[in-house]
Specification:
about 140 residues; 2 strands
């Protein structure tokens, strides 16, 4: 399955806005919303996440088809990493310690910002590194 990389950056930009609001307002429900978006990307695939559907319906028709596509597996894995950080953040905000919620949310925000601003997907790179290590382990 292939995805439009512009859609991934669009989703990352929305994620930045949502996570920044969660941090600035210290509202766990906002982080919970983002966790649900991440979970949808993991369970239904990144093409079916709410942000991807918004991109497909509103933004992509104005841009035209992409000049290239990318494998959906690395972004899907990255959504799982984002979900883990969001879940950790929710635990910190709801159960404590609060600094854990702030730190986990800030780390997820940083990763989303890197993707939105520079096209660097840290979770995607983790996926690719894991694949390389698995291949290297099989050949050893």
């Amino acid at each position: 399955m292939q995805v439009d990389p512009r859609g991934q950056r669009f989703a990352a930009a929305l994620t930045v806005l949502v996570l920044a609001a969660a941090l600035a307002l210290a509202q766990p429900w906002i982080l919970g919303f983002q966790a649900a978006v991440f979970a949808t990307g993991v369970l239904a695939g990144v093409r079916n996440s709410p942000y991807a559907l918004l991109f497909s319906a509103v933004v992509r028709p104005r841009l035209g088809p992409p000049s290239e596509t990318e494998d959906a597996r690395p972004p899907r894995f990255a959504q799982g990493v984002g979900l883990a950080f969001a879940a950790l953040g929710l635990i910190g905000y709801l159960v404590g310690p609060e600094w854990l919620g702030v730190a986990a949310t800030a780390l997820a925000l940083t990763a989303a910002f890197l993707n939105a601003a520079f096209g660097f997907c840290a979770g995607c790179e983790m996926y690719l590194l894991g694949r390389r290590l698995a291949v290297a382990g099989k050949s050893a």
